[in-house]
Design brief:
Length: about 600
């Protein structure tokens, strides 16, 4: 693979799709047609939930799980969640409807497929979606299978020359016909400046590394090719037999390769001189990364001997598959409309628990006191030219500090209703999404909240704001209670005695060398869990910290880091909120300068 699309290829997609495992077994005819048994296991995120929370899950996962990351990376991930929330709407999905929806997306979003057969799907014991099906393709060069979030610009390319010799290789779609990446002219950069840029690239990589480690470690991909002829030449594929090759990609190896590249000062300087960002652009045309991943400094390629033979009758199998396709979909329940998506208030509470977050927030009497904590104003930017003052595009942002009437569980959102300048012009964003308050942060006292207000750029003759007002939403609870899950084995698949608890995974904590990461699935929403305590069987309390969560409808997977050796058995005690309520409180600030000071 001459290009891995480096870092952002995977982070933006797999963070949404969760753990992704793929296996594709191809049978290829001499004309480039064929069939592939496509197997895919993944954990889809509930994007409807992300819409309701304004992408807050992604933001909070960054705050808790990526504690060693910089604020810039937190903003990037939060913006990704915000974007998906905006796209997907505001209601959580039913698990079975989500399962069917995921399968339909695989079928509808795969490209270059004539038809499918032998489709099956299910939810695995650990809550992931498993899909298997056989796809028929007339031309492997135009095939693009939907992998539920894991994507790459590396595709299988099939060529056949005049002599009949066939070559199949993984190749970047951005390469030229000779297979080498097109390189821009090399600028002259002073050595001192070059050294600074190298240090900056390494710093960015080290800041992103914890996130990449957590994400890439979940990726596993395997490709098997049954070939129409004998093997003449082979590089980086594993030879299974005389007419079968295989290649496997492990995400952890990708990170190791990145790490080695980013420590290679000569390579970094070469990339920068070529006008590329080493972190985002990656090593186009650089075969060294293939050597790190697969063992050879060469393309991922197999060349067949002449005399290739047809492996199966493509037209006959496609005709039969098409004739059965509609019946197969009906039997699988994929043609039926999914059940209506419930609002948050429609999700029934567990026995003994009060109502989960109501659909409509309750208006609080009175008003929240606010003041301006900081201001960011960007008059000019040009993304295409790389001109981004303060790392932002044009706009005006105020960071406000508010005092809530009582301590709360969580600040969950809000909206801006009025933003008027001293010249009478409104600075409210045009769309409703732009007027939402996203990712408010509670201080340690659980009463003070910090949130950002994003407004339009004020005209140059504006001296201040006449009025800025809106409402903030937050969660409270009537009470909390202790839920003892009982003595259980600390092993994958072990179940607690309440709340549908099951240990979903146990693995090494990627951010703590001497710690264990344990994922615990519960039939509760994440905001209902106040805290968790872990004990060994003899009653010794374990040193545990929360590392984030994933949530699908009413099911949540909490992640915990446990320092020291994990005992074979133990007990988990949860503190769970009852009677969760969503509240909203108005705020207003008047007659302030653009920098936030009072004009009086």
């Amino acid at each position: 693979m001459n290009k891995l699309n480096w870092v952002l290829l995977v982070i933006g997609t797999v963070a949404i799709a969760g753990c992704v495992e793929t296996k594709d077994e191809f049978t290829v005819n001499p004309d480039g047609s064929g069939k592939v048994v496509h197997e895919l296991t993944f954990q889809p995120m509930d994007l409807g939930m992300m819409g309701e929370m304004g992408g807050e899950i992604m933001g909070e996962m960054t705050g808790e799980t990526m504690g060693e990351m910089t604020g810039a990376m937190g903003e990037m991930t939060a913006e990704m969640g915000e974007m998906m929330g905006k796209m997907m709407g505001s209601e959580p999905s039913d698990p079975q409807a989500q399962l069917r929806k995921s399968v339909k997306e695989i079928l509808s979003q795969s490209k270059g497929v004539d038809t499918w057969k032998d489709i099956s799907y299910r939810m695995t014991d650990d809550g992931r979606t498993y899909f298997k099906g056989t796809a028929y393709f007339p031309d492997i060069n135009n095939l693009s299978l939907h992998n539920a979030g894991f994507s790459s610009d590396m595709k299988l390319h099939f060529t056949r020359d005049i002599s009949g010799e066939i070559t199949i290789e993984f190749k970047s779609e951005k390469q030229d016909e000779e297979g080498e990446a097109v390189k821009p002219p090399t600028p002259q950069i002073p050595e001192a400046q070059l050294n600074i840029l190298v240090k900056q690239a390494r710093l960015q990589f080290n800041q992103m590394k914890p996130m990449m480690q957590g994400i890439l470690s979940t990726i596993k991909s395997e490709t098997i090719l049954h070939l129409p002829g004998g093997i003449k030449e082979i590089s980086n594929f594993e030879k299974v037999d005389a007419r079968t090759v295989r290649i496997a990609l492990d995400g952890s190896k990708m990170l190791e390769a990145m790490d080695k590249m980013m420590q290679d000062e000569d390579w970094l300087k070469e990339q920068i001189r070529a006008g590329k960002d080493p972190l985002q652009d990656g090593p186009e045309g650089d075969l060294a990364i293939n050597e790190m991943l697969f063992g050879e400094k060469a393309p991922v390629r197999v060349v067949l001997a002449t005399g290739a033979q047809q492996l199966f009758d493509y037209d006959a199998e496609v005709t039969a598959a098409k004739a059965n396709y509609e019946n197969m979909l009906k039997e699988l329940g994929l043609e039926e409309a999914g059940p209506a998506r419930p609002t948050i208030g429609d999700v029934p509470p567990l026995p003994g628990f009060g109502e989960v977050t109501p659909t409509a927030p309750e208006r609080v009497t009175g008003q929240m006191n606010v003041k301006v904590g900081g201001v960011r104003l960007v008059r000019y930017s040009d993304y295409e030219r790389g001109i981004m003052p303060l790392g932002q595009s044009d706009g005006y942002t105020l960071s406000l500090i508010g005092e809530l009437p009582t301590p709360v569980i969580k600040a969950s959102g809000g909206r801006i209703e009025k933003a008027t300048t001293d010249t009478g012009k409104s600075l409210l964003p045009k769309d409703q999404w732009g007027r939402k308050i996203k990712f408010p942060r509670l201080a340690k006292d659980k009463k003070t909240v910090v949130f950002d207000v994003e407004l339009l750029l004020p005209d140059e003759d504006v001296e201040g704001l006449e009025e800025l007002s809106g409402t903030l939403e937050y969660l409270t609870a009537d009470a909390s209670r202790e839920v003892d899950l009982g003595i259980m084995d600390f092993e994958v698949g072990a179940k607690g005695r309440e709340l549908g608890t099951v240990i979903r995974s146990i693995e090494k904590d990627p951010w703590q060398k001497s710690a264990t990461m344990l994922s615990l699935r519960l039939n509760l929403r994440p905001e209902a869990v106040e805290s968790a305590e872990f004990f060994a069987q003899d009653g010794t309390k374990l040193d545990v910290s929360k590392r984030g969560y994933e949530s699908i409808a009413g099911t949540t997977t909490l992640k915990f880091s446990i320092k020291g050796k994990l005992p074979p058995k133990g007990r988990i005690v949860l503190n769970v909120f009852e009677g969760l309520k969503k509240n909203e409180i108005p705020f207003e600030i008047t007659e302030i300068s653009l920098t936030g000071q009072s004009l009086w």
